[in-house]
Amino acid sequence: MITIKEVARHAGVSMSTVSYVLSGKRSISGETRRRVEQSIAALGYHPNAGARALASSKSQVLGLVVPLRSGVNMPVIMQFVASIVSAARDYDYDVLLLTKEAGPGEAHRVTARSMADAIILMDVESDDLRIPELRTVEAPVVLLGMPDDHEGLSCVDLDFATAGRQMAGHLADRGHRSIALIGSPPAVYERGTSYAARLLEGFRSEAAKRDVRASVHPCAPGYDAVAKCLDQALAPEHGTTGLVVHNEAVLGPLLLELRRRSLDVPADLSVITLCPDDVAESLPVPLTSIAVPAQELGTIAVEMVMARLTEEHAPEVRLLQPRLTDRGSTSRR
Amino acid sequence: MITIKEVARHAGVSMSTVSYVLSGKRSISGETRRRVEQSIAALGYHPNAGARALASSKSQVLGLVVPLRSGVNMPVIMQFVASIVSAARDYDYDVLLLTKEAGPGEAHRVTARSMADAIILMDVESDDLRIPELRTVEAPVVLLGMPDDHEGLSCVDLDFATAGRQMAGHLADRGHRSIALIGSPPAVYERGTSYAARLLEGFRSEAAKRDVRASVHPCAPGYDAVAKCLDQALAPEHGTTGLVVHNEAVLGPLLLELRRRSLDVPADLSVITLCPDDVAESLPVPLTSIAVPAQELGTIAVEMVMARLTEEHAPEVRLLQPRLTDRGSTSRR
DNA sequence: TATCGAAATCGAAACGCTTCAACGAGCCCG
DNA sequence: CGGGCTCGTTGAAGCGTTTCGATTTCGATA
After folding, report:
1. Does A53 touch chain B (CB under 8 A)?
2. Which of B36-40, B51-55, B263-267 is least confident?
3. What's the start-to-end Cα distance of chain B, in Å?
């Protein structure tokens, strides 16, 4: 193993000079810098991470707590992960993978051992039992998602309330007088999942404000459940002409079922949804949608971490404004 | 930060004794052990990872190279990742997340800096250009997938040739005289992806051996492509009565298209596939299938890493025997 | 020309742990 | 009873960095 000492000797300078060339924390003459850099390249020197961490008490590692249980939407999770890893690398940080199943104890373990300088926690739920434990972690913590009680924690999330309002408003704008929300599975609402509740609230309040009739239909995955859910949402007494879908998993089956019923989108029924753009685009009928800006959220999470790591930055909450893309799946009434 | 020195003082022993209690590398009297453990608990001591790595030149970290580009099947990737993380934790290792896009340079970087003791690389392709570079990594490398040239590298993979043979054989056993392989997208074959080629070869050779007519149809994703592909596979001149599907992404559309054509599975057409069990189960028609044993492969990969890390274990190749689950989607002719 | 300050470099003390050589104590064997 | 074990424990030497003064150099200012 090539050490900084050997580089120093090769370049004819002291260890500290090499270190300062690497870190840029003190000024170094151009001439010296060049010699050192040449020696580094010539010898193939790589600074030892352990030694560095020990001396500087910084690991240059982020702990990322990911839900690996199936059930959550893996492709989206991966988009988050990818953007976080890539943003972290831009700041010269690496990412240690922690599983949510293993609990927040993991976050504590890696920070207490100085394996990670900060923690990013994905897919946070409203009532997450583990949130309190996170407060005991002696390192910045940033949550993707916004629990009810986020006092003292940084959070980033999509503004689901506004998203709900936008989608209801979009249909109201086009003259729809009765709309339905096809929601997440019942269990999601029952456990009070924050984002679902916030979207629902926005949807309802905007509908009320615009004097539009609104019904809500939680929907389990699976072809049969979708059909049953549609039976309710499209029951004649509602006179529903527009659907807001907040349940990515049922989009495909739902559109197929509509086709089976000879209901054309958007001629007979308008549909708008909240899902990743690539999903909305690749459906049999491309849907007007609000995107889940996974990329952006991940990047922001990393930026918030860095802010808290470098400055004396207090915890903050950031809600991303939703962006609606019209793909023509809604029509004017 | 609580250090080992403080624990030692608290327990009235030397630092080295505490260290040996922790590592178990020397015998310690029960009495002393108990006192030290109490002190550790009382003070809330957590060994500093950097110091440990520096002194022992072991990081207790595995670098995991994951393909994060979309296109690959994320849920399956996640199954691998989950099983790898969990197996690694069983050995007291953590997992550093590296992206495949960033290249094998990342593997080199983290090992050269002693951030990771070994590398696991997922989703390896036959002709992977980066394989040669991996040989220069000064740490054990284990591949999930088997490139053509794997000299000097450890690999784990499903035995796709046998899988192809099994599926063809399964249909032949049931009296089918003409079968078709609905394969991966053309691009996958064109770039000579190892697993696809191996399955194809097994499929063909078994069909030949059993004197069964076999046609092969690479299939792009998307409803239209699937329909077109079925047109070919089920063209009257073939007389195809059984389908082997090796393309997870098209299973849903394919079954729907068959239904649309009023072809019952298995009455009119037998279908067998290779995909994760949960996918096979949750399709509109549950399919007889060979599982992608992600869990198992991940665990084995970790075990191989550990073997190479602890013993003087030479690189090895392990092919998992496929396991076929009959879900009644094939019928006797 | 003497003095001062900034720029460039150096030396050495941490950082917290592992591990090796060494040592005393107790034991068994001859 | 002396010599050679093993067992449990210790002290101290690293491991490869960073970083904090201290020191040197040099040009500018007085």
Report:
1. yes
2. B263-267
3. 73
